[in-house]
Amino acid sequence: MVNELREKAKKLLADKDVELVIGWERGSRALAATPVFIDSPEEADRLIFDSTCGNNPAVYFTKDARRLVKDGKRIGVVVKGCDARSLALYLAEKQVKRENIVIIGVPCRGVIDPDKVATRTGGREVLEYSEDDGKVTVKGRDLDLTFDARDVLSSSCLACVHRNAKEYDLFIGEMRDGTADKDQNAAIDEFEKLEPEERWERMKEMYSKCIRCYACRNVCPSCYCNECFVDQNDPQWIGKTHEITDTLIFHIIRNLHVAGRCVECGACERACPMGLNLLLLNRKVAREVEERFGYITGIDSGEKPAMADFREGEKQDFIMG
Amino acid sequence: MVRLEKDRFDDFIRSLLADYAVYAAVTADGKSGFKVIKAAQEIDRRRLVTDRSPKEVFFPHSEVIFEYDKDGVREIEKAGKPIAIWGLRGCDVKSLSMLDKVFGSARQMPDDEMFQDPYWKKKYDTSLLFCIACNEPRSTCFCNWLGGDPHSGEGSDVFVIDAGDAFLMQPGSEKGKAFIEKTADLKPASGAEERQAAELAAGARAMMDRPVALDDLNERLKELFHTDIWEDMSGKCVNCGACAFVCSTCHCFDMQDEGKGGKGKRIRIWDSCMFPIFTKEASGHNPRHLSKDRFRQRVMHKYSYFADNYGESLCTGCGRCVVACPVGIDIREVIKHVLSYESKGAR
A67 vs A215, which has greater pLDDT? Predict the structure, then answer.
């Protein structure tokens, strides 16, 4: 599969069909591949794809005031199902032009959550990673463990039913179906059932660990405001301390800003250096949007996002609480 | 060198608690940092480099500097026991001594006395630092590139080696010596234990990759300031502050006044050159408005500007940023790239 990916990328670059291919290459950490920008056929052999490719490469289309797409360059991008959903969102929100992107789908089996692996290894450092047919093997000093990939997959992936890009130009390898893990939805059910006070306590406990580094926001393709509200100081909307009130305002507003726009890729949660379970609220809101508006983000690039659209007969009970 | 039986460790911490507010590595929900402890059982003794750096013990994320109201300004009195930190690593101790050059020390520049930071100094100057040797450095450790060593206790008050059944301790300062002399449970270490310590040190050094020589780094960085290298290297950086906030030496801060009516407080809060607002001017102009400009600033500050001012790089090779970077940027690769870069010409 990886060979085919490299060959296709080489051809796209050699034929000048694209100027750049964004994908992943092996980085210095065994459990996390790193994004790579390939601009010549000779470099294409650096591309890889496996369950360590956790970043959502769509973010690079809007990063840094959209520098990458400003000059109308045609760009190939290797995508998992969730990454493709981000591209569909960008198309719907007119952030990229369809003719300027070549979507290269790859078959995703879910991505590894390094924190879950650390729990399994008891904190021993993983120096080598390999995967084979649903099994994951990690090796290090005095460490050689094999377990089911499902045990260490990111929670976003366990809940995912959109593993393959729906809209693509090329698909490499064989498509795989995703089946949502019931337990993952149980976490939201449980959260919903909590009394408001308990829910508040749960949120305070979790978000109090935030150090305000904004890694969650910055790896998120859906967070692309030219200037984030936390970066404004005239007026200043929000305090900058790590007091829970300030931290919660950041997270809740971010959460609502991506309502109906979050593709549940889990990049935020994997990026968080403090291990916050950021997906819980995002997935709760995504469920809410689906139930109320029948809208799932990034499935159809021709459909207006739920929050940008109004249809007669829409449920409006939430307005009154 | 003296020894402490590990089964006496609980008592040891208890006696330390009598005189000090004791901080040590604590892990909660899989992430570790230096926290105040009440008993030895809370300490994560297996943790090598903590996720959060120890800088926050002396330089917290958000610190109220003073309060004000109509009647004037009141400093916040932070009475309490002096601070002891158990389980710092060599890189951690070094990072604190670097921060002390900025916040606390009058050694470096002629007018430095003017710039001593009382909030840092009060805590740091009275602290007792225990540095524990790294017997098994991690793959992300590169202290040996920056003059560090897995078995160095330089700058600490007491250097500790984990020798299996016992902790071996060597005082590194007058304060450390006085502490060891008054602590009853410590017996002289045997010759065999001293030999074991030397073997552990050799073993730890052998586990590390060969260091890259950084002698030319500062000069190279200055030469490359106006080249394309920054665009090349920062392409995948998303400009979050994860690297700076887990970094044990990044120390930029913002001052915020939070007030309502006639009263309020001034708070010092961690900031990062990775954020666009860090350099945004009142006019709206931002001299570092692109990702590459901010990426360059962080690298230049660490390995060039700080080196110019204080004679060493503002990096200890702890590897925290390598672990925390959400897009897998490895500062070692950045350094190597700078050293081997063939300039395509200035722009």
Answer: A215
Distance (Å) from the alpha carbon of B335 to chain A's nearest alpha carbon: 14
Q: pLDDT over 90 for what percent of chain B?
A: 83
Q: How are beta strands B21-28 and A135-140 bridged, if at all?
A: unpaired
B260, B70 in Cβ contact below 8 A?
A: no
C-alpha to C-alpha distance for A92 and A80, rounded to whole angstroms: 18
Query: Which of A99, A92, A57 lies closest to A300 in space, CA to CA?
Result: A92
Question: Two tokens at B292?
Answer: 């590459």
Residue A299: partners with Cβ closer than 8 Å, 6 or more residues away: A85, A88, A162, A166
ipTM value of the model? 0.93
Q: Report the candidate in A69, A58, A24 with the shortest Cα–Cα distance to residue A265.
A: A58
Question: In this complex, is the C-beta atom of B251 within 8 Å of any C-beta atom belonging to chain A?
Answer: no
Q: Are B141 and B49 in contact (CB under 8 A)?
A: yes
Strands (DSSP E) along B204-280, which ranges? 253-260, 263-270
CA B38 vs. chain centroid, Å, equals 23
The A residues from 142 to 181 touching B (CB cutoff 8 Å) are: none
Nearest to B328 among A33, A60, A241 (CB): A33
* A254 touching chain B per CB within 8 A: no
Sheet with B2-5, edge to edge strand ranges: B31-36, B21-28, B83-88, B128-132, B158-162, B166-171, B2-5, B187-188
- In this prediction the pTM is 0.93
Q: Is A265 at the interface with chain B, CB within 8 A? A: no
